[in-house]
User: Fold this.
Amino acid sequence: MAIPKHGLVIIALLLTTIILETGNFSRHFLPVQYEEEHFVSHIREKRTVTTDQWNYIIEVVVNVPNVETIQQIRSALNATSFPKALDNSTEISDINITTVCSAIEAGFQCRCEEHFALPNSICVTYGACDGISSGICKCIHGIPADGQFCQSISALLTEVEYAVDVELNVTDIEMVDYLRGLLKRGAFTLALGPTVNVTHIDITTVCFPNGTNFQCRCEEQYVWSHDNCITYGACDEIIGDTCGCINSIPTNGQYCQPQTVFYEYQIFIEVKTTEADQLRNTLNNIPFPVQISSQLLITEANITTVCSQDLTRIQCQCEDDYLWPCDKCATYGKCDGNTSSTCRCIKAFPIDGQYCQSISNQNFTTCPQTTTSPSTVPPVLYEYVISVELNISDVTLINALLSILSNIIYPVSINNDVQIYGVNISTVCSPSSAGYQCRCEDQYRWSCDQCLQYGSCDNITEDTCGCISAIPPDGQHCQPADQHNFTACPISTTTPSTTATTGVITTAVTTTTTTIGTTPTPKTATSTKATTTTTTRVSPTISTTTDSQTEFNVEMSVELNKTYTDDLNNASSFAYKDLRKNIRTVLFNQYKGITGFVNVSVTGFREGSIITDFDILTTEINPSEVDNANKNLPEAMLHIASVIGSVTALFNSQTRIVPPGPLLTGEPMKLMCEDNLNEAVMTGSVWKLNGKKIEIDGRITKTDSGLTSSLQIENVILRDIGRYECTLTGGIITFRQKGDVTDITQAPNIRLRREVNAKCKEGETQPLECCVQSPYKIEWVGLDYSQVDGGNCIKYDYSFESCSVAKEMVFTCKVKDKSNQDQTRLNVFIDDVLCDDPPYGDGKKDDESSIECDEGLAGFKKARCQLPGEWKLLEDTCIVTKINELLIASENLNEETVPEFVANLSMIVRNEQTQVSDSPATISAIVDIIGNIANIGDEISASDIKDVLQDVLETVDVIIGDDSRESWEFLNANETSNTSSSLLGSMETLASRLVEEVNFTTPRIILSSTTFNNCFMANLNSSVFLELPDDPNLINVFITTITFATLNNVMPARNSSLFNATNNETVINAAVVLVQINMNETIQNVTLRYRKLNKSLSQVPQCVFWNFTVFNNLGGWDDEGCTFISDINDIVTCNCNHLTSFSILMATDIPPGLGVALDIITYVGVAISLASLVICLIIEGYVWKAITRNSTAFMRHVSIINTALSLLIANICFIIGASIAKNPLENPGENFVVPVGPCSTATFFMHFFYLAVFFWMLVSGLLLFYRTVMVFSHMSRSTMLGIGFLLGYGCPLIIAVITVAVTAPGNGYIRKDKACWLNWFETHALLALVIPALVIVSINLIIVIVVLFKMLRRGVGDAAQTDERHTLVVILRCVVILTPLFGLTWALGIGTMISSTNKGIHIAFAFFNSLQGFFILVFGTLFDSKIRSILSRKIPTSSTGSNNTTRSTSGGIASHSGLSWINRLRGRRYMYHLSEAANSRSNGASESFSNI
Assistant:
């Protein structure tokens, strides 16, 4: 039966009238402050339940013999009407079958009825037999032991939100800043399981030590409560009963709470009373604020207006501090004689419900000149949205209704007070085979929560859907797409199949009605807000359904030659509605003739002339009929606009792409897409993953044949998980098919030693370990193995039974229930062991051994046993598994996928920073990834390149740090690899894509891009200055610079010009700066100034750029076009005639070709010194008693022994330190970063004992000074011995300990690489040796001068026995003996710094210092004639007497016989003597120097 043309208008009028007549509002709320305006959903009001009623849910288990009985029960329940009264107080409101369990061969199966499901925990425990979707399933393999049954799907899908507090203990504040920055980068969803998602993470509280206590500060938007501020003491101002900082960590475990946002409302209440004064007094006596609940309080209550009425008049009087605004005074007339624009009294009740306004909160405006009379007061408009349900059984009636509504001209006036200005059909519900389907009409959508709760029967797009598989029981209908704030979908969901029927159809009709208020409402103060939404729902009457038919939706579009306006963005605008109505009428008439036509709807307009999107709903798709209608559409559209191009049609197939079974990463996957709609052969196909186009290249291939397209993916990775979509073109209707691939699991990563060498030892065992990540389990095939504690590892102990011959065996480690396996080859040898260093174990010469990678890495490390007995690393393939997957994925990047991919790369690299830095293979993979990104740099949009480059720089910043130096040394040692050159080349390519000004900084990189005219100058990072001189041709030039502070860790110092001829060691001694401009012309004048990294290098610098073509395209530094200008104050100035990547190279201070010679001198000299020192100690021990008969001789030999002993131990520590630290030039590829613990220990003892050598030299010098100058002074042996040991060991110990205490906490005690020695560049700890040594050498020089002066004076006093020739001999004796003994040769070290290129000084310094032990043996021991006499069994004649008061004192330092060889050379036999008298009471205080 057709509906009359204005029938719906009459229905809307009746409903509106009922609402207006029955509305009885006693008060209204006027919000003073709004955060945002919320949409009020159309919901059905729930029935009120009295407090004495109780609801019970009773579960009954029924055992039935067969399925037919269940069907009978189900039919009986469907035929029963509820509620069913049992007695006067009890009724059954509903009965449902929830679960049906039946026996199968393997046990039981329990299936849920419609609208019921099982929770995720039950599905996992008993195993789902239909798959788990959205955390629920419909079937399990077993009967739950705890008696649980299926539950309501709507209850299971209801989300519950929890706030979880987590404490993190960190020691570095930078970690907090890093975490804060990470969390602020944007919203995210972290899935902890199928039903648990982390939606938001905030840092609330940061506690840190503050002297003797702690301070806990709140993050932004969080505060401490008033109680905590008072209890623990606020360390900032308490504002609003809250504070942002307290002086302790709360003992109750509380943290900062979200800052509460207060909403203030003004509530107007009308009270009928005859005692206004009593009410006024009551309010004055109430202490405000008044707490109503924990979240609600009344801050103030005032009487604003008092209205009174008698027989003749009505007056409304304002209270103190309140006034009527000017419009009310003018409209209703003043009754207080106020001459201003406002007034305190008016002569009527305002019909709009307004009251007197506060003087302090209201801006009163001046009344207009012309006073509007009361009769012309503008009416108050009220807007109502009325929902009406219509039950019809003929689908054609819907089309008729649509036609009627579209032909009505709005607004339609019902009377003077009521207008209807719009009637739309929002929702059409129809029976389907599985229940009901509710579809939205044009411009209406279901929200995401409804789509998920009831199941979407079309695609969920932009967090909405157009169809759900049920009638919502809460009475909701589709909402306007342009007026409703739809809730975002939490996760992607699988869309149910689309089904519908043509049986009984429930249609929701939305009527928008406007009423005009004309009479005052004395009991109701209505809101000043002009729009109110009211919803009424009429329950449908369900009729008998007919047979269901599947409906298909064809998405179509047509371009109209018509100007697009902004109104077409607004679905509520007249232009939008008018154009939609006109186009829909044409479309309906054009497509209604196709077979199975159901409906047509216009879904929107897009810019590009006007592109109209519309959907055709039909029960059958006939491409030829659609094609004919498309061809006729342009002619039918002529009265609206001409059609540009052809009509496009797209069909989303309900058949899903079927993925293969469970896959492991590394396996192949094939997906098929088949067009079952068109007959013509397709002309092309496009595949997408998660909405982004898949790049067909490398591991991903595509094959198109006929109406089928197949996608082959080799070596699948976890990133291949997602929703796949194929679009086949060429037919009349473009065909689209979708499917989800979810079952890809990380393949087992078996970690074992593939090559093991073991020395055969009968009765002993060789352990073999094999590990794999959880949850996999492994086994040694055919062997008896044991589980290893603390990891997912197993161990097999191979026993050596016979060691007569060498053996070779292979053992297989296999993953249980998988085909994945790996093997260990055990080589048992019987020869002598050459190498036995962990972790490679035993090995003989040229044996190769491998070890497994750390957990989280895949690959292996292989080393070879080489002389003199060390394992030499050959291969390192250990790579972080996540980076390896990204490397595979990077082969198929395109402009759509790059931004997300690069952001993911940056995050993973920063999270795995330690493993990345220590893995050369991982760094090489990252460089390859960046290269793949750079290869498609031209395709990256200008809007994305900035973010892409920022993420790339954050990644590069990690791999060029000091921690990565060893890995880069290994990579650069490979003569066939150009990893470092590739990295720099990729950065140049990406930098050339920048088109906007940007500045970005990381800890090691600074990027800057800007525009300039004529000239450019910039201080890039305080270490590099760039200048482009004035050039009139440089107009609007865009320049990009990237400064790498630590690229010297990455780039090798190989170069093709200056230093190659000398074979000198070169280093990169400045930052590397990359410079590019957007000009084709070459800039001929570029000036760069560098600050040296190592200021101790003074060789002439070489200004260079990186040439990618030299060394067979490996790349190297080249100086072509670059000129060195100056080196002043450690600032090197260069000039180049081109742009690229620049830096400077410098040579070490050791002259060219001298390194090997100095090494030989040092090694031979130290060996001689060690032997000499041992011999010296043996001789001193042998002759000790014979030569220490007086205190002077005693102290002299104590000094000699301790000097020799200290130097011996210092040299041994030097050898140990040299073995700990390996020079990278001598050991390429090995670890040359010194181990802190062992190297610090060796350095400490070297420092201590070298200082002891100098201080014992000082003791010898002071003894010489004492016995030469203070002749008449006497000091006991014990006193001299105490002073000697205090100076010799006490002072060095104090200096060494203080040095450690000051520099070690900041990791500045020792050098970081190449040698175990005191740090110089960071902390100058080396000064703790240099300064004491130079001071002691200076003191000893002064002592020598004083002694020589004394001796010469004495020599001159005895002129009869001396002459000039004798004086020279005495000086010669002193220099020959004292200089090597007191370490004067260390002064040559100053010469090496003053004249760093002088070969003679370098050789002399190495020679004399390495032979100090030999000098001590010769001049300190063997030159003593008495020692030689004892050694030759000749006892010298004593020159002293025990009781004489006068003794002879030698004028020299050594004995007469000690330098007799010099006298023999001179032909002299006499000695120079000086006699002095001694005090008779000294008893031998004066002693002969010949005994010294």
